[in-house]
Amino acid sequence: MTRRGMAAVTAAVASLIAFTPAPAQADAILGQEVAVPAYFYPGGSSAQYWTQLTASGSRPSIAVVNVLNGPTGTVNTDYQAALASAHGAGIKVIGYVDTGYYGTTGQTTRMGSASINDWRTQIQTDVDNWYNLYGSNVDGVFFDQAQKDCGPTGGGDAWVDLYREASAYVKKYHPGSITIHNPGTAPDECYEDSADILVTFEGTYATYMNPPADQAPPAWQAGYDPKRVWNLVYDVKDESELATVMAKSKANNAGYVYVTPDKLDEFGNPWDTLPPSSYMSAELAATAGSGGSTPSAPAAPTTSQVEATSLQLSWASAAHPGVVGYDVYQGSVKIGTQANHTPSATTFDVAGLSPSTAYTFSVRARDRAGNTSAVSTAVSVTTAAASATAPTTPGTPVASDVAPTSVKLAWTASDDTDADDHVASYDVFRDGVRVLSVPGDVTTVNLGGLKGGQTYAFTVKARDTTDRPSAASGAVSVSTPNPPAITDPKATLSATTATYTAQFNVPFNFHHVFIDVDNNVANHYTVAGVGAEYMIEDGGLYKYVGPDWNWTKVTGVNPLISSSGGLYRWSIPTSALEGAGTTHSLVFNGTGDSPNTYTGVITVTQS
């Protein structure tokens, strides 16, 4: 990009901001950071995007990584190398976790359940898998398909409480992690404390510039800490539109932003490329803040409401007129941010602490332009002791519905012998390792993430509100069956209709049929012994256009007829398979949570 082009972008940003000044400090332009949904594979033709992502001078602050709607259950070595490279370059790597709206819209887990408790189990499993598989190269969790409403009508905060719980889980078991909540649109104000960062917009240029009422920035966002707001805008075709969007994102108080010319592809993904280098350079340049002045260091925070596992920090709000937020540190680790919206004092709730443990906390002020103060004097505090008595031991879990990758466990509830306390949660252990934590009113779980043909021992412990655990329950031994992952694959072909059926015996994220209509393995998408011109993925039929994984959706065809108990049946009109001969070759495939599996090649001749 020429110097003139860069100047035009910067001038356009400054011009629009001049017409919509931030209420906190009119002479300061918001300093932003770029956060990228990096939904491109670190191999093949997409490898270039990972090279670009980590190149000096063009790195975003955050990259959200998605293997297959989550981390899956095994290490992907391509992603392992990519995450290490990105993290090593100073990019915060955030793992994608699908929350499915906790089933509140009817979406089901990989095991086919819409239960809130089963979604909780899958979410915690995916969270832990990111850290277990990719270790210290993971810096946080991105909760996608997230609710925006506080709760059902008349339900208070029932739904937002689930997301507060999920974020608290990450913070407790993976300290220092960033949590991001993505409803794709502005959530209710109750979500302000549900995560470190909220995605308050995800959509097109046209919608961003002229949003309908339900997608416009909410009033509360203007006074929120901009470092907790992220806007995602796609289909922004050139650098002129980019400049306009960047300016509006600043006016919308979005401290994180990502703008791309990419569009929705056949799989509903506008995040599978990076913009050209000149475009990305202009975007990064436009995030720069200006004006303002360095705030003074806040006074040392004070502590109150000190419990065994939590406390509240408070400090005098800065007199500096441009301060929009504070960064909060536990020791040297940043644990969150808070907006400067309380006139008399700013408060921050800290959770996930350990009883009878000494901690230090400090804060740093930040203005709209990104100027930061020196860190405050630290305050030292020791948390309260755990309860004098532990909860009683839960009953030995009873196993049922044993499947190749899952089991249902149920146990008799504990009591808390301390009259001033109660059972806050239960921890489920597999072979002595904690794999799940559920609220104290839950005594039944459907636990996934197992492997077929293995024997496991499960125990349960209760914990009270001070984190004091009970003794471990008795152990139940569970041996999982180990059938083939896909069985009974069949196909029929007539002059009018092609049908495909297969039994998927383990949970997969995606179910495929790769169809070779000219029975020639040497052309089109070569996979598992066929050269596929067409692919069925769950409910869609796609035609191969290449190269690599590049398909276009065949409109007007809805192949999925039924899926129940793992038995999938698809049917498509033969006329939809252009250029088809009378003999087809095909393979069935499952990918995702279970290991990638293909059947043998099936040949079918038109009858």
Q: Detail the poorly predicted runs.
A: 1-25
Shape: globular
Q: How many distinct folded domains?
A: 4
Q: How many individual helices?
A: 8
Q: Which fold name is given in CATH as the topology of the largest domain?
A: TIM Barrel
List the helices and strands and how they pair.
Blueprint: H1 3-19, E1 33-38, H2 47-53, E2 62-65, H3 77-88, E3 92-98, H4 116-134, E4 140-144, H5 158-173, E5 178-181, E6 197-204, H6 205-209, E7 229-234, H7 239-251, E8 256-259, H8 277-286, E9 302-304, E10 311-316, E11 323-330, E12 333-339, E13 345-350, E14 358-367, E15 379-382, E16 398-400, E17 407-410, E18 423-430, E19 433-439, E20 444-447, E21 455-464, E22 476-479, E23 486-493, E24 497-504, E25 510-516, E26 525-527, E27 530-532, E28 534-537, E29 540-544, E30 551-553, E31 560-564, E32 567-573, E33 583-591, E34 597-598, E35 602-605
Parallel strand pairs: 1-2, 1-8, 2-3, 3-4, 4-5, 5-6, 6-7, 7-8
Antiparallel strand pairs: 9-10, 10-13, 11-12, 11-14, 14-15, 16-17, 17-20, 18-19, 18-21, 21-22, 23-24, 24-32, 25-28, 25-33, 26-27, 28-29, 29-30, 31-32, 33-34, 33-35
Features:
Immunoglobulin-like; globular; 8 helices; 4 domains; 16% helix; TIM Barrel; 35 strands; seven-stranded antiparallel beta sheet; alpha+beta; single chain; disordered N terminus; eight-stranded parallel β-barrel; 607 residues
Summarize, please.
This protein is of the alpha+beta class. 16% of the residues lie in helices and 32% in strands.
Task: Explain the overall architecture.
α5 links the parallel β4 and β5 (178-181). The model is unreliable at 1-25 (pLDDT under 50). This protein has eight helices and 35 strands. The chain starts with a helix and ends with a strand. The protein has four domains: 3-20 and 33-286, TIM Barrel (Alpha-Beta Barrel), CATH 3.20.20.80; 302-382, Immunoglobulins (Immunoglobulin-like), CATH 2.60.40; 398-479, Immunoglobulins (Immunoglobulin-like, Sandwich), CATH 2.60.40.10; 486-605, Immunoglobulin-like (Sandwich). The strands form eight sheets. An eight-stranded parallel beta barrel has the order 1-2-3-4-5-6-7-8, surrounded by four helices. Strands 25, 28, 29, 30, 33, 34 and 35 form a seven-stranded antiparallel beta sheet that branches. It has a four-stranded antiparallel beta sheet with strand order 12-11-14-15, with no helix packed on it. Helix content is 16%, strand content 32%. It is of the alpha+beta class and 607 residues long. α1 (3-19) runs parallel beside α7 (239-251), α1 (3-19) runs parallel beside α8 and α4 (116-134) runs parallel beside α5.
